[in-house]
Design a protein that fits this description.
elongated; 3-stranded mixed β-sheet; CBS-domain; alpha/beta; 37% helix
Length: 146
């Protein structure tokens, strides 16, 4: 199966540039209700994932922190604890399954590493559930035919 079926295109994804500020990240994550968002560099390449834990660690480790300071801290200067591994657009479903175990979303990049969207864990699980239900239905129909 082609993973493009699962792709949420970049235009529909909440993401941030490495040049955005901590405040912008907090506001975007709060607005969308996300705990993590992808980061892209100046060339549009996937550069990592910023999450609430990264922001909280930065807050904890910044002496005299106040919300005004968050406007001066660039995301490129915030250490990321977790790196959501991306897949290329030609990846296989098995690649998605192994990553979905530990990632809420899987960034998708083109051959040049340019960010083109994400695949959410939810859609992967829904697809697998559909396969299981279809398989169970076939099994139960087969046992009725015997």
């Amino acid at each position: 199966m082609n993973i493009a079926f699962f792709l949420v295109p970049k235009k529909d994804v909440a993401y941030l540039s490495l040049n955005c500020t901590m405040r912008q990240a907090i506001e975007k994550m709060e607005y969308h209700g996300y705990t993590a968002v992808p980061l892209i560099d100046d060339e549009g390449r996937y550069a990592g994932t910023i999450n609430e834990g990264d922001l909280l660690r930065m807050l904890k480790n910044s002496s005299g922190f106040n919300y005004g300071k968050s406007e001066r801290i660039l995301l490129r200067n915030i250490p990321q604890q977790i790196f959501n591994s991306p897949v290329r657009a030609d990846a296989k479903i098995g690649d998605l399954l192994s990553l979905a175990i530990t990632q809420n979303f899987i960034p998708v990049v083109d051959d040049h590493g340019v960010f083109i969207g994400i695949i959410r864990r939810r859609e992967i699980i829904e697809y697998c559930l559909k396969l299981v239900l279809e398989n169970n239905k076939k099994d139960s129909q087969g046992s009725l035919d015997k």
